[in-house]
């Protein structure tokens, strides 16, 4: 019995599908896509967008080798951003656009092209899977409007969206390799898996599991070249990954949080909670309201229609969907009667290279391309009965996404230089901007977007220094008395003063070459009492400001 589908040629007219998918990407990214030079796509009070943009800018500014010894953040600590944040493949891809168009336009156009490419990759697979132009169009749109993908984009995590491009390509090429015995297809599948892995390390785990189902089914079907194609696939993937993986593995000792077990207490935001509880906050069942799966009946109905027919047309896609949902369910599966059954994700913290994979809902990235291709099959089935229906459901999927999903219209963050940039550009050298980034003052993450324009090294880190994810070098710097006092100023309710020897406390900042400390009063808009208390605390150590630059009070340390 045939278990794997045999892919056909692309249907004619794919150029029109590509054009339609570009239009849908523009619509989904509105209002940032038109015009692209004013706003970034993503929430303005969430740290991941500034962190992602900053990662791209640092790669463009320092180069890949410079990112391994960066002191642009958490100055003067030397941070290996390649180990901390992963290989910056998406930042490499955005480099030409940022160089040509500047910020934020280059980054916005990069996101637009990324979303377009996600649609194109699923359209390519569905068109060959079902032999239908309508299937290609609907699968492309279905992947673009998938709730988990849009949530990542809205929260500023466009890296994961970029990594999603390669999954449909890897699946299609591996299917073709197994069913035709063509070694070039096996090489291509390995390259696609490697690229998705380089974009986000854990996609190698998620997509690797999905592609393993293809190899297993090929073995059950007894396809003659399964062993050879599997070896070629694995070798081509590992050839690309061996050096980056080796480098990352060697530097893992500097990665915070690797020793945490399910029952370790970790700091996340303003809470100290068991890691198991944190994982439950980001699993399948606790995030329906945020659009992780999405209450999008048309999206799921089309996928259901795609299940009709012989098993080989849907078996692989069904396995990918089920496996993605199972991984996203978190450490435990809740059965009737509130009985908890350990799920596959419960094993993740026990695997050394996967211990920092704290977000089970990213397993849904394995589900999305499968459901998208199934939705394409549903459109093909409709078009056989009513020729117009297969075309109509594509635009309806976009309308449904805007109506049903909480992250559309796409939220925006200003990308134009602010008064803060002018205040910081007036000085030179490393600078400390207060209050430091923390969950209490989320707008403090704006300093990462501002740094793109002023270019000064920042003593700041964007996370609490006692966080489980804070780099060890940053934890050491943050333990200095001067920084501990300034952190306490931000956390305290009532005003309190610095009572130790001022010169002794400030000496490390002098030694680091920090000549200015800025207090961003704009963060305290509408919180006059909080600002007054904060200034009492800060100025008991720093003295009176030497200058007022826009919203910044500037304190000299010379």
Descriptive notes:
The chain is an alpha+beta fold and 558 residues long. The chain has two domains: 269 residues, no CATH class; 138 residues, no CATH class. Helix content is 57%, strand content 7%. The strands form four sheets. Strands 7-8-10-9 form a four-stranded mixed β-sheet. Strands 1-6 form a two-stranded antiparallel ribbon. The protein has a two-stranded antiparallel ribbon with strand order 2-3. Helix 6 packs parallel to helix 17. The longest helix has 26 residues. The chain is elongated, with a radius of gyration of 25 Å.
Strand content: 5-15%
Give the % helix.
Answer: 55-70%
Q: Could you name the ranges where pLDDT drops below 50 across 5 or more consecutive residues?
A: none
Count the E strands: 10
Shape: elongated
Strands of the widest sheet, in order across it, are: 7-8-10-9
Count of alpha and pi helical runs: 23
The largest sheet, given as strand count, sense and whether it forms a barrel, is: 4 strands, mixed
Structural class: alpha+beta
Q: What is the arithmetic mean of pLDDT?
A: 87
Measured distance between first and last alpha carbons: 80 Å
Which labels suit this protein?
single chain, 558 residues, alpha+beta, 2 domains, 4-stranded mixed beta sheet, two-stranded antiparallel sheet, 23 helices, 10 strands, 57% helix, 7% strand, elongated
């Amino acid at each position: 019995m045939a278990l794997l589908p045999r892919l056909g040629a692309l249907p004619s007219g794919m150029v029109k599908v590509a054009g339609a998918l570009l239009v849908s990407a523009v619509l989904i990214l509105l209002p940032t896509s038109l015009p692209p030079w004013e706003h970034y796509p993503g929430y303005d009070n969430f740290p991941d967008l500034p962190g992602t943009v900053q990662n791209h800018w640092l790669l463009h500014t320092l180069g890949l080798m410079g990112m391994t010894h960066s002191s642009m953040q958490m100055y003067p600590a030397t941070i290996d951003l390649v180990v901390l944040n992963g290989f910056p493949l998406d930042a490499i891809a955005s480099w030409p656009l940022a160089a040509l168009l500047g910020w934020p336009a280059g980054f916005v156009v990069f996101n637009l092209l990324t979303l377009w490419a996600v649609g194109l990759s699923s359209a390519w697979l569905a068109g060959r899977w079902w032999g239908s132009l309508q299937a290609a169009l609907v699968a492309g749109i279905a992947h673009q409007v998938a709730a988990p993908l849009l949530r990542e984009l809205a929260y500023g995590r466009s890296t994961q969206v970029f990594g999603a491009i390669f999954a449909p390509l890897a699946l299609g090429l591996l299917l073709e390799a197994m069913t035709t015995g063509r070694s070039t297809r096996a090489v291509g599948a390995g390259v696609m898996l490697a690229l998705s892995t380089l974009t986000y390390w854990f996609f190698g785990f998620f997509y690797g599991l999905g592609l393993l189902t293809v190899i297993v089914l090929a073995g059950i079907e007894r396809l003659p070249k399964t062993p050879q194609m599997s070896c070629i696939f694995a070798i081509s993937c590992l050839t690309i990954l061996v050096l980056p993986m080796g480098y990352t593995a060697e530097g893992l000792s500097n990665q915070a949080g690797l020793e945490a077990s399910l029952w370790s207490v970790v700091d996340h935001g303003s809470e100290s909670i068991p890691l198991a509880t944190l994982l439950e906050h980001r699993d399948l069942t606790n995030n329906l309201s945020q659009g992780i799966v999405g209450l999008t009946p048309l999206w799921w109905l089309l996928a259901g229609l795609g299940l009709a027919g012989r098993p080989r047309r849907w078996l692989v896609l069904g396995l990918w969907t089920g496996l993605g949902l199972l991984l996203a369910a978190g450490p435990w599966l809740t059965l009737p009667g509130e009985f908890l059954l350990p799920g596959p994700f419960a094993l993740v913290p026990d695997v050394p290279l996967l211990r920092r994979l704290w977000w089970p809902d990213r397993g849904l990235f394995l589900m999305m391309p499968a459901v998208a291709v199934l939705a394409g099959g549903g459109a093909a089935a409709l078009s056989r009965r009513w020729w117009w229906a297969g075309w109509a459901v594509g635009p309806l999927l976009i309308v449904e996404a805007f109506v049903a999903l909480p992250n559309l219209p796409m939220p925006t963050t200003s990308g134009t230089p602010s008064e803060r940039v002018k205040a910081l550009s007036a000085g030179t050298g490393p600078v400390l901007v207060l209050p430091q980034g923390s969950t209490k003052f989320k707008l403090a993450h704006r300093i990462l977007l501002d740094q793109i324009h002023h270019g000064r090294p920042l003593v700041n880190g964007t996370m609490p220094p006692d966080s489980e994810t804070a780099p060890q070098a940053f934890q050491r710097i943050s333990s200095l008395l001067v920084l501990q006092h300034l952190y306490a100023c931000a956390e305290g309710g009532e005003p309190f003063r610095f009572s130790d020897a001022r010169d002794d406390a400030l000496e490390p900042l002098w030694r680091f070459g920090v000549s200015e400390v800025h207090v961003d009063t704009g963060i305290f808009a509408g919180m006059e009492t909080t600002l007054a208390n904060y200034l009492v605390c800060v100025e008991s150590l720093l003295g009176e400001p030497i200058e007022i630059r826009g919203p910044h009070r500037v304190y000299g340390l010379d």
